[in-house]
Amino acid sequence: MAAGILYLITFVSIPSLALYKPVKDQVGDFVLGAGSDTGVMWAALSEVVVGLAGIGTAIVLFPVLKRQSETPALGFVAARIVEATLIFAGVVSMLSIVTLRNDVAGSAGADPAALVTIGQAHLATYDWTMLLSQSLAPVFCDLFLGYLLYRSGLVPRILPIIALVGAPLLLASDVAVFFGANDQFGPVALLAAIPVAVFEFSLGVYLVVKGFKPSSITARPLPATDRNPELTPA
User: Is a pLDDT exceeding 70 seen at residue 63?
Assistant: First the structure.
């Protein structure tokens, strides 16, 4: 159940795009004092929560997934950590824009044109980190997880199938965005992200409501070193 709850928590940042809109639409005006920064702060906090919850899903699932295959289970954990790290980097960029607005723009001798340029640079950093963290990293998370869930039979097979089909679609969209052939926030990119979102949300709901199905890997006893840390060799 814990993994399911954590997966559902990863969706709390959905409103962040709307909350970041004043910055993304007119970063220059925002840096120079237009509008409110309250929504931006809430959006940044929600993304931090998402990053921590994402790492939590990997930590909670790893002891079970490694019984199927430890290498992809470790890959899932590593992908989640990379995803969270990049999310935090993007949040830092947004918070830096808020700092420019609140602590620098009103100071004596501040150059408005230079502040706008710096704000635009931070916004560009956020957009790139968002592409890598919340679009590209989930591709690898869901490929590892989809493979493990499909092989283990821990959940209905339709769920990992959605992941294994959706991840390559999202990867193709991300590559197109990377080379400028597609708009990162356009309809094509959003459609490409739907299967992955459906998989992760459905998995969260399923784990909360039903938990893992009986499986040969859950029936296996844990190694002695996992049951009692004192037995771990020095």
Answer: yes
